[in-house]
Write a structure and sequence with these properties.
heterodimer, A: 214 residues, mainly alpha, B: 211 residues, Butyryl-CoA Dehydrogenase, subunit A, domain 3, 4-stranded antiparallel beta sheet, two-stranded antiparallel ribbon, binds zinc ion
């Protein structure tokens, strides 16, 4: 934990790490598993390795893909008012903007944010980490893949969508009877798994592995 | 909480350029990181132009987002339209005060706060500031973290429009504000992502010597 800034003066570049948020230099030392190295002045987490992280992230990413398929196929929510009823899937929500000309672009965004981007990120992470677990060199394009996976992170909005559901439901709960389909629960679990997978991934360790093995 | 004796040395001060993506350092003058393939900039001053550009389009999109209806509700041949603020007031008068507050915070307080915060941060790196770098960095962190959550209202509209399609009994359609609001959120997220937070800390060096 004692990443003395003084020592950073004359270390070889390979053992130096710079805080991506504030540019402070530190001696890059792998903390204990579960421990972490934090920037002294801006408190950005620099290194945070986790036990069996690669394997667990791969398993979680596979689960994300499977659950997302389920969450888009099965009915998500249903309403019933005065004998009229309607069911909607996750994709229906994204495609709700389809009929209104330029509103279509919004459908594309929403489908991307809640379905496509989480799945694409999970697939990319599997592609990057699988050879590393097997102890081999990274597959071709792994670096670009991991760059994109990281860039897409803020645009993966499954957790915001589920809160949106909660808000939407309270708006209509007094007017209609609401039925929760299996996809709703899948999606709820999915959100937890996405957060968990992201928290297990340590960028620095992965980049270092990609560098050494390539 | 600045412990004495913890002098921070930056990559720039040591004549190095750091990769913002993978944290590796390179000798100054190098333009691509070999480890991750990202472009290297010691300080990305040009990023400020991108920040301002995205911020301005974000603000422009936010204006129609508040003027036009977000939702068109048809109940038994009666069509009503509601804007973001109108919808929240509606909720509040129907006893859903908590949800009204959530909507107002996500769609008004956060976006407006974000515009102000990003504008302030982009200005602050050009002139001496009263707020310490630590506080400004915290502000940046909050803006980056919380910006995405404004998208809630767009998702609410999407879910309601997909779900409430009950013949003549009730139907909800999205209004044009849904798209301009979504664009506003996207553009302000891009503004926050474009900002190079290392610029916040650079002044601290000169402040320290003048003190
Ligand atoms: Zn830092
Ligand atoms: Zn790099």
């Amino acid at each position: 934990m004692d990443a003395g800034p003084h020592g950073a003066l004359d270390l070889p570049l390979d053992e130096t790490i710079a805080c991506p948020q504030c540019d402070a230099l530190y001696h890059a030392r792998m903390p204990q598993e579960g421990g972490r190295m934090v920037c002294h002045r801006c408190h950005t987490v620099l290194i945070a390795p986790k036990r069996n992280a690669y394997l667990r992230v791969i398993a979680l990413s596979l689960t994300i893909i499977i659950l997302m398929v389920g969450a888009t196929v099965f009915p998500f929510l249903g309403v019933n008012v005065m004998g009229f009823s309607n069911k909607a899937s996750v994709l229906d929500s994204a495609l709700a903007f389809l009929d209104g000309g330029w509103m279509i672009s919004l459908s594309v965004f929403v489908a991307g944010f809640i379905v496509m981007i989480p799945v694409i990120r999970a697939a990319m992470v599997i592609y990057v980490l699988t050879p590393l677990v097997a102890g081999r060199g990274p597959w071709p394009g792994a670096r670009a893949m991991f760059r994109w996976a990281e860039d897409l992170r803020p645009w993966s909005m499954a957790e915001i969508f589920i809160i949106g559901c909660a808000v939407a439901l309270t708006k209509i709960v007094s007017l209609a009877r609401i039925e929760f389909g299996p996809a709703f629960w899948m999606f709820a679990v999915l959100v937890v798994i996405i957060v968990l997978a992201d928290s297990l991934m340590d960028r620095w360790t992965i980049w270092k592995a990609l560098e050494q093995k390539s | 909480m600045e412990s004495p004796g913890t002098e921070i040395l930056t990559a720039r001060e040591r004549g190095l350029v750091a990769c913002r993506r993978c944290a590796k350092v390179w000798p100054m003058g190098r333009d691509t990181c070999d480890r991750c393939g990202s472009a290297l900039h010691s300080r990305d001053w040009r990023s400020l132009q991108r920040v301002w550009a995205w911020l301005v389009v974000g603000i422009i999109c936010y204006i129609p987002a508040n003027l036009f209806p977000m939702l068109r509700t048809t109940m038994l041949f009666n069509t009503s339209e509601s804007t973001i603020v109108g919808g929240a007031i509606d909720l509040a008068t129907h006893g859903n005060l908590g949800i009204a507050v959530v909507i107002l915070v996500a769609s008004v307080v956060i976006p407006v706060g974000k515009f102000l915060a990003i504008g302030y941060l982009a200005l602050s790196v050009r002139r001496p500031e009263r707020l310490r770098p630590k506080q400004r960095h915290k502000l940046y962190h909050v803006v980056e973290f919380i910006g995405r959550w404004s998208m809630i209202d767009v998702f609410v509209v999407a879910i309601l429009s997909a779900l409430v399609q009950l013949n003549f009994a009730a139907s909800i359609r999205p209004g044009p504000a849904a798209i301009t609001f979504a664009l506003s959120v996207i553009f302000t997220m891009l503004a926050a992502i474009s900002f190079d937070p290392r610029l916040i800390w650079d002044k601290s060096g000169s402040e320290r010597t003048t003190r």
